[in-house]
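Deliverable D5.2: sample structural annotation.
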Amino acid sequence: MTDTKITLPESEIPTHFYNLAADLPTPLEPPLHPGTRLPIGPEDLAPIFPMGLIRQEVSLDREIEIPGEVRDIYRLYRPSPVFRARALEELLDTPAHIYYKSEHVSPVGSHKLNTAIMQAYMNKQEGVRRLATETGAGQWGSALACACKLMGMECMVYMVRVSYDMKPYRRIMMKTYGAEVVASPSDLTAAGRAILAEDPETPGSLGIAISEAVEDAAKREDTKYSLGSVLNHVLLHQTIIGQEARKQMEIAGEYPDVIIGCHGGGSNFAGIAFPFLTDKISGRRKNLRAIAVEPAACPSLTAGKREYDFGDVAGTTPLLMMHTLGHKFIPAPVHAGGLRYHGSAPLVSHVLALGLIEAEAYHQGEVFESAVKFAHCEGTIPAPESAHAIHSAMVHALRARESGESKVILFNLSGHGYFDMASYEKFLSGAMARND
């Protein structure tokens, strides 16, 4: 096949989300109540989530229908294209075939809109008027702000302070969509005030911002909480990425040997990998490798323990069985703000424990080096988060050159980096070392 861009018509937008939980060889461990440490029920989640999303969270149905109204909005940018990275292959002088799913084509520039639209829709169906959330680098906050505006809802975003300061254009983007945005920790919540009292100069973290957003939602009757990663229903919504990619790889006449996604909470990695992982579980593709790539500064999968832990710093969320660095862990202020999370999605942690996926961690200096090479070859400047997947793809393409194997590599370009120019400036000026 000689095509560079593989596209699908709008009629090929998936009609259902794929639920990996239905195909797991062993069941997922249940979340526990933060007070009783007993398995939680739907009534425990009802104060912060709508019942429709709670049902999706615990569902074991293999397919969950996508409402027609949601699919209609998806038509704004879906199906997203798959590209063959021929120029990158030439630069690396590799026999590997490198493909990438380009989620940066969404209106907000990342994959996050896939679940934001679905979550806003489900909340509106149950009469919710306002959503509260956290955001790291700003992709998720931008996505939910956009989705809320499309649905006629209000949006409150607690943005991790280091990203609030380093990424002003994401903040402006959220405000353009009508959202209220504050730096986290803030003085608007008890959780935020407690953190500020302890360390007024804290850079913040996703765990802190989650505590603030959950508290906000719990104290207002018109508000529910919305999360951009980690939970089952969020990963579920992102599986439209991999479902489309399967069809596109069929058009290309190839099947990936290696599937790669960056990893923070787990949503974009799950989105690209889970619809393929079913083939490994069934035995049809026993040698398939799925690799989650994280920053060395926040290595939850590669260095964290798999145990029950809170999803937030204040310890208000249910306890989740996940790989974690500890809910009090405050990551270094690396430029990939969307990957600065202490834990991993329970589903991602579960399949890692089963040996169905792998994990790698890299320093941000070497990641940015690969990101710039990618931009030189493919044109798109990737988000610092997505650059982790790019770096891993290049590492494995070079290994294929050394071994002489013609591997097929597919990675998820989860977002563009056009609001991350300050980060690129630091790298290009030499202020960021390769081993940072």
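Annotation notes: DSSP finds 17 helices and 15 strands in the chain. Residues 5-12+68-109+232-428 form a domain with the Rossmann fold fold (CATH 3.40.50.1100).
The annotation will be released with the project's public dataset once the embargo ends.
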